[in-house]
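Dissemination and training. As part of the outreach component of the grant, students in the summer workshop were shown how a complex can be specified as a set of sequence lines and then modelled as a single object. The example used during the hands-on session is reproduced here so that future cohorts can follow it. Participants entered these lines:
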Amino acid sequence: MSRRSMLATAGATLAGGALLLRGGAAHAQPSPAPTASPRAAAKAPARRDWLAPGMPGRDYQPVIVPNGAKLPWKVVDGVKVFHMVAEEVEHEFAPGLKATCWGYNGQVHGPAIEVVEGDRVRFYVTNRLPAPTTVHWHGLILPSGMDGVGGLNQKSIPPGETYRYEFTIKQTGTGMYHSHHDEMTQMALGMVGLFIMHPRRPVGPRVDRDFALMLHEWRIDPGAKRPDPNEMTDFNILTFNAKAFPGTEPLVVRKGDRVRIRLGNLSAMDHHPIHLHGYHFRVTETDAGRIPESAQFPETTVLVPVGSTRTFEFVADAPGDWAMHCHMTHHVMNQMGHDLPNLIGVKPGDLDAKVRTLLPGYMTMGQEGMGDMGDMGMAMPGNSIPMTGANGKYGYITMGGMFTILKVRERLDGEGDPGWYEAPAGTVAMEASLDELRKDGIDVAAPPRAEPGSPMSKLRG
Amino acid sequence: MRALFLAGAALLASGCATIQKERGHAEVAALVEERIGRKTRWNQGTPEDAEVARHLDTLLAKDLSSDDAVEIALLNNPALQATYEDLGVSQADMVQAGLLTNPTLSGSIGFPLSNDGVSETEFSLVQEFVDLFTLPLRKRVAKEQFIADTLRVAHEALATAAEVKKTYSQVQARQQLVELRRMVLEAADSAAQLATLQFGAGNITELELANERAAAEEARLELAQEELALVEDREHLNRLLGLWGPRTQWTLTEKLPAPPGEEAPLEHLESLAIRQRLDIDAARKQVELLWNALELSRSTRFIGRFEVGVHTHRDANGPRLFGPTLSLDLPIFDQRQALIAKLEAQHRQGERRLTELSVNARSEVRAARARLLTLRGVTERYHRVVLPLREKVVEQTQLQYNAMQLGLYVLLEAKRAQVTAWRAYIEAVRDYWMARAELEQLVGGRLPSTPGEAPPVPALPSPSPTQGHESHPGHGHGATP
Ligand SMILES: [Cu+2]
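and obtained this result:
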């Protein structure tokens, strides 16, 4: 049985129940429109192929979009109606760095769209940009004319005009949306968003926390105020939901929760291997839907290719503060310069004093690496953020960019950030005492030892 | 007999004419002082000269100012001192012109060759008298010549003063340019040092190291060239000031002043030049004296040699005879046509030269004024726009450095570009002051209103301290690693 015919069957079965739900929802305003307007009739397809609108809390558990927003809707004649406005947006990537981006409804990225399998959805898209635009519904099964490729499927929306998209959700999983007119520019400036499609009926084990994150990359020179869409390789701001650490909001869960994390990647040029500390997870979905349980595989790092989504799940049974980040090391740096002279191991000696006669305030940096670069207290270009991180419980966290923290706690007070994890005594790495060293026969002054790793190896010492 | 008395009186009068060493120089000194406010003095080997020498040493002991340098040159420039002697020569000519030709005394004696004769004696005293009639005119011509020479000498003095001012500005600028070259070397040296450290740590290739070191060595050689240029500029000034030995040890620390906030009004400079330029005045005098010389020749064209004398003669056995003599040229063939034609041509030539000088002076004044105004604009543009921009580039580069967007090499390059702009600025300011001295010389004195004291140009680009701006919030210790 094909998916389409399966959906059609499901639609028929659920039609009765859906009627009861019409007109009321947490996010939706009751529709004042008459049940069957001539206009609605005119644009309705020959055969009604959708169900009554799925409602949050009843038909689905809403996702959490850290640092993000959701697109509101109302129900009109059993159709979920959304209004998207493409416009210029002032966006803060992290405290200290703002830029003029392009997004939707005052958000960068655009607000997440959350619908239910079988919903009929109608999107009005108003273009307030200086350039034409379209919306492509990435990964969605829909009529060709609704696919949103400017020139191919439709006329691009001219500035100042509003176009309508309408289709029925025939799938479940994590999709995305983005501009498909001058993608290179418009996506680089932020015109992307998540498109969450919940199943009508729960699939698999019940999930307590469902997080949705969009991965993206940008080029913003320190002191500049607009992303550079012409950049091809040298991206310097890497984001989860358009925030770079320390601007990212932690993912907070209660111990024992079943956690789902959805990752979409609409970066210009990079795939991102996202690594979660502390857990083994199973990749349960791609952008084309659920992976059969027999095919799900355990992982600690999931590679999210450009133009794809990946969803993984795990049970948060280990309390703590757990890092989740892209494992490409340059993707956990903020606004790093990539043409720096290599100074590792250089001892400046009197060089600093000499240069200071020409350039007061000069200081050689980088001879021990970049670990200190977040907290030198030096004068910086306006509108820029340190290359790395923020203070943590035990010191400076030398991470930036695509980095966030999964906070798992026994108890939670409300929805806020629970603060740093208090590790039980004896479970934190700390300086070894002389006593311990003696007891275990460790001589810190002795030459360090290693043994041959293979029968062919010959090691000295 | 009357003529004889006359002759005697004239002889006596002209015999009194002597040469006064100081004459002429006083006029030169007055002319120079009137125009540039500094005295000239003529070294004549008198006790007063020792005074002058002491004054010179006093001036040289303190920090040399531009005005001091001019004063020293006027006192001590050897070429100028030689030129002053022209006045002595000219004055001698003038005195000579006031003297009559000396009378001629001639005598003869004849001895008889036989025994019956007596010796015969004859004496005559003859004075040429044409001089007497032309004397006043000749004196006038000679005087005019002397005045023209005085003007010419004063003009030389002013030219020397202008040259001193220009050279002074050159030395000033060169000292600053040397400092700036030193900064360029510092920057290149720092880059080479960093490269050496990086190479030592194994971080760069030998190629990169060699490039940085080569650049530093080139900067070192450029500094050496600049230092040599400073020595040469100082020696140029030494020559102008006539200095040698320990006197060459003068110091000059005064910085090149910035051009004055407002330029003196530069209208009517052409007519001012025509009015007060001494070389033009001298040319004018030259034309006049040529005219007088011509008049002199014309008025005496029919007067040839005209001699009056007394004569005594005694023949053998005869009585002694005594009587006047008169001899006269008959201007039948030579009526001085050639001389007059020559003088006429010379007079016309003088007039043409005067015209040429005036036309050229006007053009030179216009050109120098244009140069002055343009250079002023250039220095202002540097001061108000280019230098602040260069400073901003360094400042922003340093911020980008702090944010680790770029390395020390790029930062030093920004500094080098700033220093280069400063060099161009210093050169423009120097050229401005040289153009100003040139214009002053061309108008024959100070510009209408000499602007007040201008603040000195900052010696070096001010270091841009990296304060202000924002420090990243929330991170604390700010310690150096
Ligand atoms: Cu990555």
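Chain A has a mean pLDDT of 89. Students were then asked to discuss how this feature might be tested experimentally.
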